[in-house]
Design goal:
Layout lengths: L1 H18 L2 H13 L4 H30 L3 E2 L6 E4 L2 E4 L3 H16 L2
Antiparallel strand pairs: 1-2, 2-3
Amino acid sequence: MWERAELFFVEHYIRIRLSWSWSAVLLLVVLADGFKFLAWKTALLVAGYLLCADADQGRKDKDNKYEFDGWVVDPEDPDQEIKGNFTRVRLTGENQIIVTRVGELLRRTP
């Protein structure tokens, strides 16, 4: 049980580190100082940004989990995978790594 909890915190820490743009936080603080915001208003602004960034990353994680989970090997053709009415070619080894990296790059581009 401890390992599962430990894994949750590590995954959440990694997600936070990747989802928050620390340069955007710095820019918000500098602009708030330039507009003479009070410290509590600046903190509220930064907290709002961080909450929205975390919620957005959570939505992306949920979408990715739906895309990657639930595929089973086709009993008739072991080179194919099935999920509902959809079928895809089963990739192994280096091909799977390349496709995953390209998919991640395409998701990051606006």
